[in-house]
Amino acid sequence: MKFTAEQIAGILEGEVVGNPSAEVYKLSKIEEGTEGSLTFLANPKYLNYIYTTKATITIVNSTFEPDQPITTTLIKVEDAYKSFSKLLEYYNQVKLMKSGIEQPSVISENVEYGENLYLGSFCYVGKNVKIGNNVKIYPNSFVGDNVVIGDNTVLFAGVRIYSETEVGMNCTIHSGSIIGSDGFGFAPQEDGTYSKVPQIGNVIIEDNVDIGSCTTIDRATLGSTIIRKGVKLDNQIQIAHNVEIGENTVIASQTGVAGSTKIGKNCMIGGQVGIAGHLTIGNGVRIQAQSGVGRNIKDGEAIQGSPSFNYADFSKSYVHFKNLPKIVDDLHKLKKQKN
């Protein structure tokens, strides 16, 4: 797929300086630009590369004026970084612009779907499913009975959506993710075995949620596991039964949230964080990577460590952690002096 400088400038509302007919068909870093590639210059430390890059087109800020000869065609915009991101989003939309129902695939009884559905080959759609407009379900995906999927949502290849799940509009769920599997509920018996507690709730994913690859969100025992609007989940995250995650919270990979914990809105949670069950995490909380959270957290706190505590206190304490061998030696010396 090729684009001219003139077409790109039209999408970005920019100005072409150079050849408006210059064509590109791939993207590159500015220092690795080759003929036929499009790149951008936003960070001043890469300025020297604008004079040596072999990229055919470069997006730059409108204030940029070269003081040496250049060979690349420029597209001047108000903010080069934002414009390049906008172009990536546009390219992605064009690339994923698919529709139609491929075969073999299975659509069960009483399924309703809107305009421009894309259903890839080897997909299964269960009974009484409702699918909105412009939904894309890539090959080898499973959608269970009574599922609802909102407009403009994308399920990439190999996604599994268990029965009764509700997915909102403008959501993206990446390959290998499983939504609505049973919560981890087992009751110990007198003979030492465990009896499974039926998990009869569901999962509700609100609008504008992104879920990375191989993330699992368990259905509730009763009621719903809820992912609120604007939440962004990375790859390989475990969300247990009856958890609720507030609006616009972001969670990095390999984090696990145990059952019935409530996480507030606008939180930022680093990778490999473990959060115990039945806790309340406030709004605007920041949890550093590899923290272990076993207590309730108030609004706006920043915490670290395992067990976690205030981030500033952790940073101060860490200085002493590193110096423990020297501190112990000093103590031994003091003891000897006293003796």
From TrEMBL:
Its EC number is 2.3.1.191. Pathway: Bacterial outer membrane biogenesis; LPS lipid A biosynthesis. One of its GO terms (biological process) is lipid A biosynthetic process. The active site is at 241 (proton acceptor). GO terms for cellular component: membrane. CDD domains: LbH_LpxD. It catalyses: a UDP-3-O-[(3R)-3-hydroxyacyl]-alpha-D-glucosamine + a (3R)-hydroxyacyl-[ACP] = a UDP-2-N,3-O-bis[(3R)-3-hydroxyacyl]-alpha-D-glucosamine + holo-[ACP] + H(+). InterPro entries: Hexapep, LpxD, Trimer_LpxA-like_sf, UDP_GlcNAc_AcTrfase_non-rep. It comes from the Bacteria. Residues 23-89 form the UDP-3-O-[3-hydroxymyristoyl] glucosamine N-acyltransferase non-repeat region domain. GO terms for molecular function: N-acyltransferase activity; UDP-3-O-[(3R)-3-hydroxyacyl]-glucosamine N-acyltransferase activity. Keywords: Acyltransferase, Lipid A biosynthesis, Lipid biosynthesis, Lipid metabolism, Repeat, Transferase. It is an enzyme of class 2 (transferase). Catalyzes the N-acylation of UDP-3-O-acylglucosamine using 3-hydroxyacyl-ACP as the acyl donor. Is involved in the biosynthesis of lipid A, a phosphorylated glycolipid that anchors the lipopolysaccharide to the outer membrane of the cell. Belongs to the transferase hexapeptide repeat family. LpxD subfamily. Homotrimer. PANTHER family: UDP-3-O-ACYLGLUCOSAMINE N-ACYLTRANSFERASE, UDP-3-O-ACYLGLUCOSAMINE N-ACYLTRANSFERASE 1, MITOCHONDRIAL-RELATED. NCBIfam families: lipid_A_lpxD, PRK00892.1. This is UDP-3-O-acylglucosamine N-acyltransferase. The lineage of its organism: Bacteria, Pseudomonadati, Bacteroidota, Flavobacteriia, Flavobacteriales.
